[in-house]
Design brief:
The structure holds 2 protein chains of 2 kinds. Chain A is mainly alpha-helical. Chain A is about 40% helix and about 5% strand. In chain A, the strands form 2 sheets. Chain A has a two-stranded antiparallel sheet. A two-stranded antiparallel ribbon of chain A has the order 3-4. Chain A is globular. Chain B has 10 helices and 55 strands. Chain B has a domain of about 100 residues: Immunoglobulin-like (Sandwich), CATH 2.60.40. In chain B, strand 40 and strand 41 form a beta hairpin. The two termini of chain B are about 35 Å apart. Strand 1 of chain A pairs antiparallel with strand 32 of chain B.
Chain lengths: ~500, ~1000
């Protein structure tokens, strides 16, 4: 009697031993891995890497420090904890699911198991890629750890990239080759073969560039990387949207819509959290980069982080449609009602990509503008695939590279007027410049700089100004890596080593 | 005296002897009649025993307190009644007498509730403070928990918010856990978490079990101390009707000195110039700014009324006794617009006891039902705190514009919102709570000394809450575009069943007592709430979910959880000739909140006492009584969570929205790493003390204790690779050690009775272990504004929730000082500093200011707390005063929002640095962009001395029965009282009593405190 009286089980939760029995539960476990993509506040890698690059300053309010610290490569205690925790939580959930797949009663359907495994491994690779390029030296965990295993030391980057490459290869091979047009609308956001192949290209370029290697950790050769990207181009069914401004909600009235034919993979966000701070399915980056504390039609408002460096604005040709589609110029757009207020590092330029809009703003949809912005975050779009393919083909097939490059540039200039000729000698520089303009504010620039070497990165990122608030000095001793959170180093009993150039 | 506090207060012992004819004749026997009344109000005391000392001859007083006896001159009369001080009087020369007995007096026969029983105070071996009804009544303008403040050393009571209806933070002998540190309350045997529902005049006594030896009988939940509350019982033979009422008004006692518009303009201009931008105002504009708006005035509810009416009936016969009451209390808050801060409560109490068969079978029950309603403004964190906004809004725009609408901010700062409007719009809410708590019991005493008792109690609480959010647009960010109604229900149902067998046996001078018992307890909590937008009808009255029209934005939440406890316990007590006492307690508890591995735990305690003054060899004339006590024991503390030992799979907030139409998909993941070994948090405590009565009128109690709470159930950070942000682990120790002293003096000088009591509790809190590599539990960031780093934490070697940050060393007065501030190696330590910036101390001497230079800069815990109470009685007059203070604690003043440069300041900013020699404490005013980060670092600039001494209450009353002897009333007392009339403190904030902390283990963080009102009231006590 006493035993029954004292035995209860949760009424609204399964336990680990009772769960992971059927395909529905496996899907729920997979969804929770996706869920971690939505996590991130100040410290999401997209925003942080833009701040750290030459595209943006820290901005925000005069007393807001965090954004400026990333911009200037400054220290603060326990910085980047959110980034670290986000990815290891995602990796943990993927590992749990992968370890439970065998125990699920799949019935007759064997493909589902492969699909879920492929998606989970893709997501794990995605998380590891963000982690390893952000921190450089991270523990490699591929299973649920017991308490005694918590002090797993940092792995060599090569080992981490090897896992990433293997996971992505697995996903590329196991996921079905359904072209864009055949993907049901309700599945948008799910990982595809094309997403895996495109990410292999990105990882390949970063790893071989940053670490000066010939192949991707012995798993993917350059030729294979080219094949993956070209498979996306030839059989993926993707294409460029006809006009660049139509890609972005804030860039005009003829937005082509999310999940368009250029979106190879995006992180899905929604306003449906409806003001619930626990829900975390909204795009937090948007409120950070929104124009600070004022609604200037057609834009809504935010905190004014990541004020755009005028150098980026000036890098565009006057006929390049991408300039005004990527950046808001207070002056050019004649936003006379603008008040600087306590905006710090004001440059006159704000993000247009991802800028929240007044029409259909989160508040009006019953949510909260701080947490319920809902523009999807595009991780990889087709233009990036074209430029990556162009870059990889520079040495082997210059004409092919030129074709891919032209497609991107022609679209930007609405014709062939902006064409430039790639050469083996100068092609890399042109493509990198093109990536800067095409993919501005999309979380790519910083990594593109790092993979060209510390000298290139420093030359681009250093900012001299008579106004001390705009002075940025890239510290090459960090190798561009960010500070590992102090708390994690302490909790590891000192097993983790801090990155060079960072205290503690 | 066990509890000098109570002695001090209750010593209004007035013994009046009406001398009759002085009979010189040595007649052997003659008649003597008299009356026994209470010392407090002269009401008759039926059922008192009047016995001729040394004989079995005596009488029991009747319904009017009267008695008559045959006495001779050589007789001594012993007058006793349970709960009252024994009186011994000579019969010589008297034919009639009136004996006034004092409740809860210095008398050693006073009865103390010890948990599952009572004990004579003189035999108690633990540290128990007995607070009797009189103390509570004298402060009955206060709530029960407020009235306890300053009465007992070692019990620190702090307001987290003085909003009507909010409870206080009660800490017995320090904060001993990072989990729930509230004491356990037992009301008439029923455990509960909160006693704010109680009506002060229904309480007969409160006993605070402070040490482990005395609280061990409640083992599992007693680690934070136990407060035993006994409500009033009826007495046989009398019919008593009492009416108590008071009415008073409350006002803020202290206004924060904020800048007026002109001074604000000056400071803002200076801020702009110092930060490299253009001044906001021309000289001419400055001249026109004037005083501007005083937002504080606009939110104060001046002369906020409070009133209380209580009517009680008590009486009985030799079979049944009863005590019932009905009471109404109402209090408006001193802050809030449109009656937004308000509390009222109706309560009914019915206690009765019936002798089913002689004294052998007794049946009874105690039941209290209350219905309370509460409306409140937001207090607490910066996002909900309505008071904080008042401190930070510029005085530049009016509360109302010329059309009577809420004033809008000026173009200078379109971001700021009218704080009065915010308070109005964002606090449209009300709660209604129904509470029923009580027990029913059956007691059988088949043979002398043996009592078998079964006691079944319930405690149930149902709260309905509603709120309404209107559409508004007050500034760029303070807007709400869609109206919303929120409705919620919260229920907690608990039952508690105790079965005990108690046997007392006296063999010669040997006294034995054995208690064994079982306890079963079940608590079920559930809630259901939801909201819906776009209401068809506006207003709080219409705030029901069905009033919303938009299904797509409707949300609903609900949960239900159950916890059970099953326990066995026993107590052995032995005493010899009232000289030597020994008590041992053993309790074994099992809780559903733990896994099978460690579900049951055992908590022992032993204590001993020795009364040297009862020894033949120890008879100092000045020392009337001395008891030395020592005890040791263990208690448990339960986790607040339910399934901490299990790895549960959650589906809450783990979903993802696929597809172009945002199709929600449910996600599920383990949210916690299982820990099947999870076990009880244990508090181990040793206590040594003594109680002394000396020079007839003095009482002194001293206790020294050391309390170590170990194996906290603490969610500690683990490496993120584990997949969990934290894990619930056992580990971590905190040590509270201290001294409690209470000194009382009571004397009656003819008509004047004097009672004085002072007490002091000294406590030191130190964490000795935290179960992770860091040895730290971090505090949160962004507590005082978004970019504020961590400034409090729990860490080994420091007090819990200590303030953490940089030490400053004045202000750089000039460039030279900046360049002279160098490390040993000659490196300039703050190269970015400018004159007027703060000099931070480079504690580790490495030439840079970074996190390694942070250290302890403050302690939220007082070094000691103290209370001082005075009671005077003169003929029909009574006067009492209660003072309370803390010393040596600090406040983190987080009221200013440094993330908004245009926030208003207090006038303290007028003492800022403006040039060489102008200030060495307050830096130049900036917009926060200075590279030196003057205020965006956690530093001692934020630390303020929180010591205070408060005159909590003053009461002056007169009983008109003294002059109107013929009125058919036992008492007609009128009184005036004032609370919080004076507060002495150097803290400039609105109230130095700041209990707020973002977590239970943090405190002393002022984000805008709802201050304690200054109250003046008049009252009436009538007894029929």
């Amino acid at each position: 009697c006493s035993k029954d009286f004292l035995e209860h089980s949760p009424v609204d939760q399964q336990t680990e031993t009772s769960f992971y029995q059927n395909p529905d539960q496996a899907l729920q476990a997979l969804v929770a891995v996706y869920n971690q993509l939505n996590i991130g506040d100040f410290d999401n890698i997209h925003l942080v890497s833009e701040l750290a690059s030459d595209n943006c300053f820290g901005g925000g309010g005069t007393s807001d420090l965090t954004w400026k610290q990333w911009d200037r490569g400054q220290e603060s205690s326990n910085m980047n904890l959110g980034v670290w925790q986000k990815y290891y939580t995602g990796i943990y959930r993927a590992n749990v699911l992968l370890s439970k797949l065998e125990g699920v009663n799949w019935g007759a359907d064997s493909t589902l198991k492969n699909t879920y495994a492929a998606e989970a491994r893709f997501l794990r690779a995605y998380f590891y890629f963000d982690l390893v390029r952000f921190f450089g030296n991270v523990p490699l965990v591929t299973k649920q750890l017991t308490v005694s295993e918590y002090n797993t030391p940092q792995a060599t980057p090569a080992d981490v990239y090897k896992l990433i490459a293997e996971d992505l290869k697995f996903a590329a091979e196991r996921l079905p080759a359904i072209a864009y047009a055949g993907i049901p609308g309700s599945n948008y956001g799910r990982v595809t073969k094309w997403a895996a192949e495109s990410l292999i290209g990105r990882v390949f370029l970063y790893y071989t560039g940053y670490y000066n290697q010939n192949d991707l950790a012995g798993v993917v050769t350059k030729a294979q990387a080219i094949n993956y990207l070209e498979d996306v181009i030839t059989t993926g069914g993707y294409d460029l949207v006809d006009s660049f401004p139509r890609l972005w909600q804030a860039a005009g009235r003829s937005f082509v819509g999310e999940d368009n034919k250029e979106t190879i993979w995006s992180i899905k966000f929604t306003h449906k959290g409806l003001g619930n701070w626990d829900q975390k399915n909204g795009n937090r980056m948007q409120v950070h980069i929104g124009i600070r504390n004022q609604v200037l039609n057609p834009y809504y408002k935010g905190w004014g982080a990541g004020t755009v460096n005028p150098r980026l604005w000036n890098a565009y040709d006057g006929n390049d449609t991408r300039r005004n589609a990527s950046i808001i110029s207070i002056e050019d757009e004649n936003l006379t009602g603008y008040a600087v207020g306590d905006q710090s590092q004001y440059t006159g330029y704000f993000w247009k990509k991802y800028q929240p809009l007044n029409e259909g703003n989160a508040d009006s949809k019953g949510g909260n503008f701080q947490i319920d912005n809902y523009f999807d975050n595009i991780v990889i779009r087709y233009a990036d695939v074209l430029l990556m393919a162009a870059e990889l083909n520079l040495e082997g097939n210059l004409s092919k590279a030129q074709t891919y490059y032209n497609q991107v540039r022609d679209r930007a200039f609405l014709g062939t007027s902006g064409r430039k000729t790639l050469t083996t000698a100068d092609g890399k520089r042109l493509i990198m410049e093109e990536r800067r303009l095409e993919l501005a504010l999309e979380g790519v620039r910083y990594w593109d700089l790092l993979r060209q070497g510390m000298n290139v990165a420093k030359a681009a990122i250093d900012n001299n100004s008579s106004d001390p608030q705009f002075v940025v000095n890239f510290r090459t001793e960090t190798q561009g890596l960010f500070k590992i959170p102090e708390q994690e180093i302490n909790l590891s009993s000192g097993v983790y080593k801090q990155n060079p150039g960072w205290a503690n | 005296c066990m509890i000098p506090v109570s002695c001090g207060l209750s010593s209004a012992l007035i013994l009046t002897m009406l001398s009759g004819n002085v009979a010189m004749a040595q007649t052997p026997k003659r008649a003597l009649s008299g009356k026994v009344t209470t010392g407090k109000d002269n009401s008759p005391l039926p059922g008192a025993s009047v016995r001729i000392k040394g004989t079995n001859n005596g009488a029991i007083t009747d319904g009017t307190g009267g008695f008559s006896l045959q006495v001779s001159d050589s007789d001594s009369l012993e007058v006793t009644l349970v709960g009252f001080t024994k009186q011994v009087l000579s019969a010589r020369g008297r034919t009639s007498l009136t004996v006034n007995l004092s409740e809860g007096s210095t008398g050693l026969d006073e009865i103390v509730v010890v948990g599952y029983g009572t004990e004579k105070k003189k035999l108690v071996t633990g540290a128990i403070d007995h607070v009797n009804t009189q103390q509570l009544e004298q402060n009955h303008s206060l709530r029960v928990d407020q009235a306890l403040q300053g009465q007992t050393p070692g019990v620190q009571i702090t307001a987290t918010s003085a909003q009507p209806g909010e409870s206080m933070k009660v800490r017995i002998r320090g904060t001993s856990t990072v989990g729930n540190a509230d004491p356990l309350y037992i009301v008439d045997g029923v455990p509960t978490y909160d006693i704010t529902y109680l009506n002060a005049s229904d309480i007969a006594s409160m006993d605070v079990l402070k040490d482990a030896a005395s609280s061990a009988i409640y083992g599992a939940r007693a680690a934070n101390g136990v407060v035993l509350v006994t409500t009033r019982k009826g007495r046989a033979g009398s019919m008593k009707i009492t009416y108590d009422a008071y009415y008073g008004t409350q006002n803020p006692s202290h206004k924060v000195a904020l800048l007026n518009a002109h001074d604000y303009g000056v400071i803002m201009n200076e801020m702009a110039i110092n930060s490299g931008s253009q001044p906001y105002f021309t000289m001419e504009e400055l001249g026109r700014l004037g005083k501007g708006t005083d937002w504080q005035e606009a939110i104060y509810n001046k002369n906020a009324p409070m009133q209380n009416h209580s009517l009680s009936f008590a009486g009985g016969n030799d079979v049944s006794v009863f005590s019932s009451s009905v009471a109404y209390t109402e209090q408006e808050g001193i802050i809030g617009v449109g009656g937004q801060s308000k509390f009222d409560r109706v309560s009914f109490r019915m206690n009765s006891e019936h002798k089913m068969y002689k004294d052998i079978i007794i049946f009874g029950e105690n039941l209290t039902y209350t219905q309370s309603r509460k409306r409140g403004i937001g207090v607490g964190n910066i996002y909900s705190n309505g008071i904080r906004a008042v401190f930070n809004t510029s005085p530049l725009f009016p509360v109302y514009d010329e059309n009577g609408n809420y004033g809008k901010p000026t173009p200078i700062n379109p971001e700021e919102a009218n704080p009065v409007a915010m308070m109005d719009y964002q606090n449209q809410n009300r709660d209604r709570t129904n509470r029923l708590i009580g027990n029913t019991y059956l007691q059988i005493s088949p043979i002398k000394g043996l009592t078998i008792r079964t006691d079944f109690g319930i405690s149930t609480s149902n709260t309905d809450s509603r709120s309404y959010l209107p559409i508004y647009a007050l500034s760029t960010n303070v807007i709400n575009l869609r109206s919303r109604a929120t409705q919620g229900i919260y229920r907690a149902n608990e039952w508690n069943w105790d079965n005990t067998i108690n046997y007392q046996k006296e063999i010669g001078k040997h006294n034995f007592g054995v208690l064994v018992g079982t306890n079963a307890n079940k608590r079920v909590e559930s809630f259901l709430n939801g909201y819906k937008q776009d209401l068809t009808k506006a207003g709080l009255d219409n705030a029901v979910i069905n009033n919303g029209t938009t299904d797509s934005t409707q949300r609903i939440f609900g949960a239900d959880s159950t916890a059970t406890i099953y326990s066995y316990f026993g107590r052995l007590s032995y005493s010899y000739a009232d000289k030597y006492m020994f008590t041992a307690v053993l309790r074994s508890d099992a809780s559903s909140r733990f896994g099978p591995n460690n579900r049951r735990a055992t908590f022992p305690s032993v204590s001993v006492g020795w009364v040297p003054t009862n020894e033949d060899f120890f008879k100092p004339t000045w020392l009337d009584f001395l008891k030395i006590r020592a005890g040791w024991g263990q208690n448990g503390n339960l986790p607040q969570g339910y399934f901490g030992y299990l790895s549960t799979i959650s589906t809450q907030y783990l979903g993802y929205f696929f597809g172009s139409g945002d199709n929600p998909f449910v996600g599920a993941a383990p949210i916690r790493i299982s820990n099947p070994d999870l076990k009880w948090e244990t508090s181990e405590q040793a206590n040594i003390g003594f109680d002394a009565n000396f020079l007839k009128d003095f009482t002194l109690t001293v206790d020294v204790y050391r309390k170590t709470t170990k194996d906290w159930l603490v969610p500690v950070n683990v490496p993120a690779v584990s997949g969990a942000a934290n894990v619930l682990l056992n580990g971590g120790n905190v040590r509270n050690q201290g001294v409690e002293i209470s000194l009382g003096y009571n004397h009656t000088f003819k008509d004047l009775s004097v009672g004085v009591n002072g007490n002091i509790g000294i406590n030191r809190n130190e964490i000795t272990d935290i179960p992770n590599m860091e040895k730290i539990i971090n505090g949160s960031t962004a507590i005082t504004f978004a970019s504020m780093p961590e400034f409090y934490r729990a860490q080994v070697g420091f007090p819990m929730g200590y303030f953490y940050g940089f030490k400053t060393a004045g202000i750089f007065q000039n460039e030279q000082e900046v360049s002279n501030y160098v490390s040993k190696e000659g490196k300039i330590i703050q190269p970015n500093a400018q004159p007027g910036d703060v000099r931070f101390q480079d504690l580790n001497g490495d030439g840079v200011i970074d996190s390694k230079d942070q250290t302890q800069i403050g302690n939220p815990f007082p070094k000691f707390t103290y209370g001082f109470n005075i009671n005077l009685g003169y003929k029909g007059f009574d006067f009492s005063a209660a003072l309370y203070g803390t010393h040596g604690n600090q406040i983190w003043d987080g009221t200013h929002d440094y993330s908004r440069p245009l926030s208003n300041y207090t006038t303290e900013i007028l003492g800022r640095w403006t040039g060489e020699g102008s200030s060495n404490r307050l830096p130049r005013v900036t917009d926060g962009s200075e590279l030196n980060q003057n205020w965006i670092r956690s530093s001692d600039l934020y630390i303020h001395n929180a010591s205070f001494l408060r005159v909590k209450s003053l009461n002056l009353g007169y009983d008109f029965k003294q002059v109107l002897k013929n009125i058919p009333l036992g008492q007609l007392r009128l009184y005036v009282a004032a609370t919080n009339l004076f507060t002495f403190t150097s803290y400039r904030g609105v109230d130095p009593e700041v209990g707020y902390g973002p977590t239970g283990w943090a405190s002393g963080i002022d984000l805008g405190t709802y201050p304690q009102p200054k109250t003046v009231l008049v009252g009436l006590n009538v007894k029929f």
